Amino acid sequence: MIKKDNTNHFNDRKTPGIRPAFSKFQHIDMVVRSLVPMTFTIFVVLFLSTPFDIPGRNELLPAIVVASVYFWSIYRPKSMPAVGVFFLGFLTDLLNFSTPGVVIFILLITYGIGVTQRFRLAKYNFILVWLIFAVIAVGVFMLQWILSSVFSLKIMPYTSFLFEIIFAVGIYPLLSIVFAWAHRTIANPGKV
Known about the structure:
8 helices, globular
């Protein structure tokens, strides 16, 4: 006898049987829930791009965006598609007057690693996923520093990129707690 999981409507569509149809409001709820990760990240980009006097906001912004792309590309890639990641990078580049295309590139690299390795990474415990994120953060922010130096034709100060790495690795556990809660509750289209 096959046991049917009634908590996830996406799995129910694959098994034959009679089920009640979703109402228009349930479809809207599913769409809104699936947009939560992207909406949160866009809000962070817009908030940290404003000219408030927040200390370290230039280093904090890429750290949060890279951590968000990494987490959601592993645990819910449909809510953080590649087109959305490209848009996040474009928005970040545009609002922060950074070297065009560099943030897009590092976000797409992070997304590619997360999506291609998601089945492996989702099985690991938090500490190992965090350590892998730390390695990825060092790699992408070093690449950002190199590309920014090449495109500006001078060696950029490495301190801001070092702070980006420290912020990214340090803030990932806190963001991971918030994202895991959202993954189970408000960002879960299966809860409709």
